[in-house]
Design goal:
A hairpin with a 5-residue loop joins β8 and β9. Strands 1, 3, 4, 5, 6, 7, 8, 9, 10 and 11 form a ten-stranded mixed sheet that branches. The longest helix has 27 residues. This protein is of the alpha+beta class and about 500 residues long. It contains 17 helices and twelve strands. The relative contact order is 0.15.
Amino acid sequence: MIIRVDLKRAVSPFCWEALRRLPLADAVLSLWAYVMRPAFLQTVFQKHRGRSFEDVLSFPVIVELMSDALLQHQGSGRQACLRADEEGLLPTCLEAFYGKLRRLPLSLSIGFLEEATQRLRALRPAAARSDEQPASLRDLTLIMVDGKALKNVAKRLLVSRGRSGKLLGGRLLVAYVPAEGVVPSFAAHEDGETNEARLIPDLIPRVRQVITGTRLWILDRQFCDLTQPRVLVEDGDHFLIRYHSKTSFQADPSRPATASRDAQGRTVCDEWGWLGSPTSKHRRYVRRVHLLRPGEEEVILVSDLLEADQYPATDLLAAYLQRWSIESVFQQVTEVFELRHFIGSTPQATIFQAAFCFLLFNLLQVIREHLAAAQSTPCRVEDLSLEGLLTDVTRQLIAVLEFVSPEELCRMIPESRSDQELLGHLRRILAVPISKLWKKTKNKNRRPHLKKKQRQSGAHTSVARLIDPAKNPPAKRRSTKKRHATNLTTK
């Protein structure tokens, strides 16, 4: 919250000792004070607010209430607001917070994540992550792109009450940079039923503004068409997409295919040709890498990296294998940061909460990197559990806020630190031994527990289509006579 404090007033030794014994809370509060300065949040709001406005409840207060709900109250917005009201820090009523959250524009959610993440990226330690990128692709920045639907929205709106099936909030198309471990940006649509491929023209320029250099876009098979590659190769970038049979491929007879073996002895075929039919004006010359996996589904990739000597097929397959990392990000953000339970019930509210959860993910990634870099023995960032780390972060935040008042915390953690001052502070306080609770469990002999899934209805719709019925036309059903005639013919 924005609290007026007397910076000249001395802080008691007890408060300094309490903060010293809680290094994770100190790190989170220091990063938060640096990244979420009220002046910065006001700048973000004015830049991306669209037609929204501020009255009594400002955007910085909304951000603080959301952070309290996700970091201290297991995703409960009501508890965060009641606690703030009890402490005299809520300038208006509880309903005003939900109303403001319900109407936040998508541009503000996206801009909030982008600009705050840019400030966090400047605080990463040098050489924080182990380099698992294939050698031939070291000059390229790998960017994983995938879509995510925001599911299980609460049926609080009048139009959604009594509806059967599940409700979808917004639809996201997210970019993830595994070399940095951050989500720099995403594109969003209010309709959770929309096709993710429609969001590519919105996402790619956004990522190009914040991730420099030559990029390699890695996408799944649903993006394999003749439209997406034209957007992906702009600005000198390259693409690696899993092939889908909906788009035809004609081999080049003048360039014969080659075969090789991967590390597991499986056959890998390299061939060149045109993606798209001969009559299409957008057909593109590509390279197709075909991995044969006996007893499993074959993996077929298409790319504009045509030089087999410079970019071996095994390196392209290894790069595509890293695409699972964005699925892991989605799982961690959903389970660890309580994205399964939405505070608001509109698409705008769900998208803002998702943006906030991705920002918390990026913030904890920076803390994980500093913890790993401060160890005397080699420690991989990937070996530290995000869930275990967040558990102790929550516990320490609750402890420090119980014993130290907000006014004293504002004096102990100033917002005016420079990048270098904050980097030095993080190196000093996070040079602590790694707790066993922060390490990932590795038990290769453990057999997975197969829980029998309960049969559930697959029916679902999006909140946006309920709010605007024009976006949700009724499905056309065949008449009874036609269905009866079809049944007789079948018999």
